[in-house]
Amino acid sequence: MNPLKVLYVCSxxxxxxxxxxLADVSAGLPPALAAQGADVRLLLPAFPAVxxxxxxxxxxxxxxxxxxxxxxxxxxxxxxxxxGPDPWLQRGRIGASGQPVWLLHAPGLYGRGGNPYLDGSxxxxxxxxxQFAWLGWAAALLGTGLDPxxxxxxxxxxxxxxxxxxxxxxxxxxxxxxxxxxxxxxxNLAYQGVFPANVRERLGLPDALFHMQGLEFxxxxxxxxxxxxxxxxxxTVSPTYAREITGPEQGCGLDGVLRQRQEVLHGILNGVDEVxxxxxxxxxxxxxxxxxxxxxxxxxxxxLQKAVGLQPQPDALLFSVVSRLTEQxxxxxxxxxxxxxxxxxxxxxxLGAGDATIEQALADCVxxxxxxxxxxxxxxxxxxxxxxxxxxxxxxxxxFEPCGLTQLYGLRYGxxxxxxxxxxxxxxxxxxSLENLDEGSAxxxxxxxxxxxxxxxxxRRAFALQRRPADWRAVQRHAMALRFDWARAASAxxxxxxxxxxxxxxxxxxxxxx
Length: 514
What we know:
Elements: E1 5-9, H1 21-35, E2 39-45, H2 48-52, E3 54-62, E4 88-94, E5 100-105, H3 128-143, E6 154-158, H4 164-174, E7 181-186, E8 194-196, H5 199-202, E9 216-217, E10 220-222, H6 223-230, E11 233-236, H7 239-244, H8 255-260, E12 265-267, H9 295-308, E13 318-322, H10 334-343, E14 347-352, H11 356-368, E15 373-377, H12 381-390, E16 393-396, H13 406-412, E17 416-420, H14 423-428, H15 434-439, E18 445-447, H16 452-466, H17 469-481, H18 486-501
Parallel strand pairs: 1-2, 1-6, 2-5, 6-7, 7-11, 11-12, 13-14, 13-16, 14-15, 16-17, 17-18
Antiparallel strand pairs: 3-4, 4-5, 8-10, 9-10
């Protein structure tokens, strides 16, 4: 049987470019799919950091702009040009992994420094619609046979950046073009790629798509909605989040669309890349450790305390945050409980950046509690590994959390997650209640209501468990034994791909279709 060919469309991949968990997923899922027999090629914009990590192979493939059947004139000229060269695709491989990729080059759109999504002022680039329309257009053309030597059976797009691929594929199907299966994955429904209605003409979008049952969203064009409406199957990154987004509280205005498409909506929990996140072999955390040999974890705690200026106290319960500092992550609650945390003998290390108000409130905590609270604004991959390895507890008090990877890393490294019971956090962490301790299923600390009172109660449970060393050790051992691997997720995705390729609805046992 021929291998299933999958075009995997995304905007970032670790270690070349990472702004969030999408990059980790894009690094972990494709090789797991390949290990189960799939032929997977990534399609990525040629951002400088991405292009620098890819070894080119073979000739380039032009991506024609206009004249496509079913579209008014195709995409217009690139921004800042009148008749600029069409974008082109360069085949290659990611240096370290050998993963096959297509890089989409488009003069003026991708080859610039800084954040791929935001300008120096923190605002979306003014040509964001063109950036990711071209990504979608290239995906649609590859899906319908632009490269006759490799025609995918499935186009799998990730988040709003890839959403327009499915609108273009829909139109090309209507005109009789080859029709691959179309699978769209929601990583975070809150980020939707919404643009003014007048972008339609320059993006080559016919008026026939601009209506309530199409890509129109409150009078604007919504790339996320295009993915939801025009795909054959929709997945998201945890079973609980798949249920949550069909309701108004977490549906972000698109819950009605998702309820209409429940038959093809599936929650598949993300995995952990064992090559990158393994406490025994992690090159950023040495000496390594495992559940039976925790001397390396004690050493990691001591290194972390020294590196960030915390008092060298082995017995202090060290809480940590590795996160964007936003209300979505529930971190507006944290400054109000820091004084209590310190009074109880704890320490806190925060690594992240985001809301200026939260950053300042945490900086004030550092000033009040020098040597007990540490803060590093920004993101540092090596320090992130050091924090997760060296801390005792990792905090994720999120307002919503589609899957969360940080709590999975915490479990793997024996750093017990303290989480709010939403999305993937609810699916992966079991509270240290008496009955769960008795059954041996406890793996962390879980609270439910988004308020300081419940967060404080969960913190107190962590201190209480620390005073029972045998129970702490049992919970830690259980947490480290849990496995959330990409092989399991890949098997579920392959089921979705096969049914999408034949347009057959699917309910996946064990992945909680919404």
